[in-house]
Design a protein that fits this description.
Helices cover 42% and strands 14% of the residues. It contains seven helices and seven strands. The protein has a single domain, classed as Rossmann fold, CATH 3.40.50. It is globular, with a radius of gyration of 17 Å. α5 links the parallel β5 and β6. By secondary structure, the protein is an alpha/beta fold.
Length: 260
């Protein structure tokens, strides 16, 4: 077996939401594997911390502040990536945000904010990077959705609707971009241990005593357990995969707490 088929070395990779949680781990693992990484997010201080660590470890990384809801911000990240590295091989749409709220209490602004970040941001980055990939002869887009996009989750209807849209968008985009040698796939994580999500639960007094309750594997996942499958999808080992959503949720669950 040719082990190089799993390599992402030299593949210029944009990771949105790359300053914390799953996005940070994806960015670090790609950099460790030899991929130049561009980190994009609203909070530049988080990105700079991850960038500095990657550089310290001998990798290549650039940190760029970006609001994924703003087309000009998105285009600036794409343009800067091309200026810095000459191309874009991989786009990981990992950005996301939400809050817990009853549908009847939700404001239009709250709904639009969550849908804008999770779904519209995925469209904007996919369009901008997709044009570059088309013109250079190929590439790979990986969208990070959620199991919340596959089933109902109390107090998370806005988030679930947006993440369901990401899954459907993945299939449509894959169909349209296949003639341009661009693969598009999706990962739908179940409950993953990130400090940000645990802080939300702690603030509401909702941290369950057993984080694995209802999961076949009896535990929540770790960020690396999403990062490594992302590496696989970006590699040539996944060359015949497009339009697919990989569910990574510890074997399914019956409890309805979810997060990234």
């Amino acid at each position: 077996m040719d082990s190089n088929i799993f390599s992402v070395e030299g593949k210029v990779t944009i990771v949105t939401g790359g300053g914390t949680g799953i996005g940070e781990y994806i960015a670090r693992r790609f950099a460790e594997a030899g991929a130049p990484v561009v980190l994009a997010s609203r909070k530049i201080e988080n990105l700079e911390r991850v960038r500095d660590q990657i550089l310290k470890d001998g990798g290549k990384a650039v940190a760029l502040q970006c609001d994924v809801r703003k087309p000009d911000d998105v285009q600036q990240v794409v343009d800067t990536t091309v200026q810095e590295f000459g191309r874009i091989d991989v786009l990981v749409n990992n950005h996301g945000a939400s809050f817990r709220c009853n549908i009847l209490d939700m404001t239009p602004n709250g709904w639009n904010s969550v849908v804008g970040i999770n779904l519209t941001g995925t469209f904007l980055f996919s369009r901008a990077a997709g044009i570059v990939m088309r013109d250079q002869g190929g590439g790979c887009i990986i969208n990070i959705s959620s199991t919340a996009g596959l089933h109902a989750t109390p107090l998370m209807a806005h988030y679930g609707a947006a993440k369901a849209g990401v899954i459907n968008f993945t299939r449509s985009l894959a169909d349209e971009l296949a003639p341009h040698n661009i693969r598009v796939n999706c990962i739908a994580p179940g409950p993953i241990v990130t400090e940000g999500f645990l802080e939300v639960l702690r603030a509401r007094g909702e941290v369950p005593k057993n984080l694995g309750a209802g999961l076949v594997m009896n535990r929540w996942g770790e960020c690396d357990e999403i990062a490594y499958p992302t590496l696989f999808l970006a590699s040539d080992a996944a060359s015949f995969m497009t339009g697919e959503t990989i569910v990574i949720d510890g074997g399914g669950r019956t409890n309805l707490i979810t997060g990234e």
